[in-house]
Amino acid sequence: MSDDVEARLATVLERIGAAEAQYGRAPGSAQLIAVSKTFDADAIRPVIAAGQRRFGENRVQEAQSKWPALRAETTDIELHLIGPLQSNKAREAVSLFDAIHTIDRDKIAGAIADEMARLGRTPLLFVQVNTGLEPQKAGIAPREAVAFVERCRAEHGLAIAGLMCIPPANEIPGPHFALLAKLAAEAGLRELSMGMSSDFETAIAHGATYMRVGGAIFGHRPPIA
Length: 225
Ligand SMILES: *Cc1c(COP(=O)(O)O)cnc(C)c1O
Prior knowledge:
This protein has about 220 residues and is an alpha/beta fold. About 45% of the residues lie in helices and about 15% in strands. The protein has an 8-stranded parallel beta sheet. The longest helix is centred in the N-terminal third of the chain and has 21 residues, at about 1-20. It is globular, with a radius of gyration of 17 Å. It holds the Pfam family Ala_racemase_N.
């Protein structure tokens, strides 16, 4: 079981390196976030043992139940929140996570700014863009994204590092990644959080600096209870 996870992680890292070379990207410029949501500490430990340090979770409470113990064992873990955030969870999110990928409205931006000031922490911040304008999906509309990034700076005092998107499941992802890269350039942002198990090489071709990869490393996810 742990051999499988090690082999899958090695394969993903090889594929990232190959895609960086193929698309003229600097080695290491596309950084892997291993998405460990729904997997328990025993499933995560072999991935840490294999050298992976950057992990992603989509629920604050689930992350709180797993990561304090894992961090006590390994100090240089970098934890990314990649799921939707409620403003009443902003304190927990800012205290637990090193990066937050899902800022998409003023209420959340304000709550995160308040907690950063209170806790003296400065997580890496991303604005989520709903590139497919899907009603069930979080994220700000593409046409509002640049102005929202400006408001985060001017009104909330937040230094946004980049943009994040999750393309619609039934569409080819390339045009969504291209749109995200264009919006980031317009907003003067360097970081692009895009690409999952099925499309991270395409994301690298379009300039991804962080890819969020779950299944290709951890295997099939148990259904969410
Ligand atoms: C689960 C999840 C991923 C990882 O998806 P895989 O297809 O398992 O690689 C990436 N991003 C977000 C926001 C997720 O919730």
